[in-house]
Amino acid sequence: MKDTLPMDEKYKVHMSKYFEEYERSLKDVNGFWNENGRIIDWFKPFDKVLDDSKKPFYRWFINGKTNLSYNCLDRHIQNEKRNKVAFIWVPEKGEEKVVTYFGLYRRVNAFARGLLNLGVKKGDKITIYMPMILEAPIAMLACARIGAVFNVVFSGFGEQALAERINNSNSKTIITADGGYRKGNIIQLKNIVDKAIDLSNGVDNVIVVKNTHTEIDMEPDRDYYYDDIIEDGYVEPEQMDSNDPLFILYTSGTTGKPKGILHANGGYPVWIANTLKWAFNPKDEDRWWCAADIGWITGHSYIVFAPLLLGLTSVMYEGAIDYPKPDRMWEIIERYGVNLLYTSPTAIRLLMKYGEKYPLSHDLSSLKTLGTVGEPINPAAWHWYYEVIGKSRCPIIDTYWQTETGGFTISPSARLGLPDLKPGSATFPMPGIDAEILDENGKNVKPGEKGYIVIKKPWPGLMLTVNNDDKRYIDTYFSKFKGKYFMGDYAIQDDDGYYWLLGRSDEVLKVSGHRIGTIEVEDGLVSMKEIAEAAVFGKPDTVKGDTIVAFATLKDGYEKSPELIENIKKRIRNNLGPIMVPEEIHIVSTVPKTRSGKIMRRVIKAVYLDQLPGDISTLENEASVEEIKRAVDIIK
Ligand code: 6R9
């Protein structure tokens, strides 16, 4: 942890500015957010910064009226940004498409009109299930414009996962595409939507973008082509209350049911615009590339909204970062002159595995700042990113945050002053984030000791609640340490005050940066007719972070066979989606349980990883451990 890389003096002189701003953000909440809350335009200014009278349901920028689509588009087209490029959209294969701020404004208005013509109203919920095409941000912005609450579902999720999100969000309109491209293959998205609708409570409208031009079924009076409903013109942006819901985004937790995280129209945009500015200090002429998917919070906040709020030019990439060749990412940086790159440790580790010759064959001199997100970055990957990609001239902005936090919570700040960087540390909290690390009893741990990271005070990017489940919001986030926001991660603060994030403290995995609840996969397994019980855990993987491993028992009358396992994997792929498919499924006759019948995942995982299983005094069936040991011996 002492491996410190002194940053260039030009950054360090400003470090005092960071501490000054940070102090002020905590001591003078009103003054600080009165000022920084104006990073967006308000139709009607807020008359109070924070209402904390109904803790932990914090409300920000009280009585302020605003609109996110207005802030991303209309205000820029009134000035010199009108003809600036908003997105350079790069397809998996073929030539890019460029859209200016005015072009995007026009297209968002046309789609917003189309939605209104279909009868969509303010407050309606809309599910967006789309590939990484320009119509995806257009759809999100059009919803925001008319005040419809959008719910983007990652296009890698299967029919059952989609159906559950359509139902839980109560969406009656779905926006999708005929298909999407993935590594040369076509994913038949509309077919998946059709199946999901059969499993759902029913929907009124399905809007389909023609993308892959594949054959699809169109249901009369329900399904419409995007091209047929758009209508040029101006749609007045709805005056949204700061605390009206803006979007729902589902994320995995420690139960089988994903949580619909609900973000607001006021606090969320204020937070993401400020944090992007503080952390990366983007300049007007910079080209920003956030290489994530819009189906995740990273894509919402830092592909779509924050860069548009700041009026930046972004690259948006449709495909996989190593397709058609392992140099795809470096080729895009060179071709489009990317200055600020934001990606994940899992991507860095994958590209690192292919070797240096790929980045070295491209001119990456446009790069100024490099960012990472999604999981802790291991020092080896950090060094490779810093030295091979950034040529030791670009600071690494390691941003620690979550779906629930809206935007960055702990991250170096290139604008307010960079600390000397330590590979693997996200360094210091963003202004407004009052973090601390606690032990099991809620006492502060000493420097260097591992504990749970919490945030003591609210900040504008904090979610409003869990959709339709205020109790779950309180139970999950504000109960373990009463009144403090519990992030679910382990952390250490070192002697210099730097934060080191050490991974999840719960049953949540990060598979290639994607957040997956082990219980969700278990539920998917036990819903199959052959499976009686299942235990799922993460196996550390040098590229993906975690891979999914499952142990399962079969119901009477079923025999284990390689075909059965393949068939189970196939069904998980269809129902839940490719990212949820366990890499290994082991069939055993019993799984270790407590006397009260709870599956002891931790014991299975320990045996599997050849570690000590810890306290097994509550174990009911010791023979099961022996069986797992034997199963593991066979695999290894
Ligand atoms: C943005 C995002 C959140 C969880 C979070 C933590 C992990 C994210 C990290 C990181 C260490 C970082 N995480 N960034 N851990 N260092 N820089 O990933 O949101 O999908 O909700 O996941 O990801 O475990 O709790 P989300």
Automatic annotation (TrEMBL):
Keywords: ATP-binding, Ligase, Nucleotide-binding. Residues 79-459 form the AMP-dependent synthetase/ligase domain. The lineage of its organism: Archaea, Methanobacteriati, Thermoplasmatota, Thermoplasmata, Thermoplasmatales. This is Acetate--CoA ligase. Residues 520-598 form the AMP-binding enzyme C-terminal domain. It comes from Ferroplasma acidarmanus Fer1. Its EC number is 6.2.1.1. PROSITE patterns: AMP_BINDING. CDD domains: ACS.
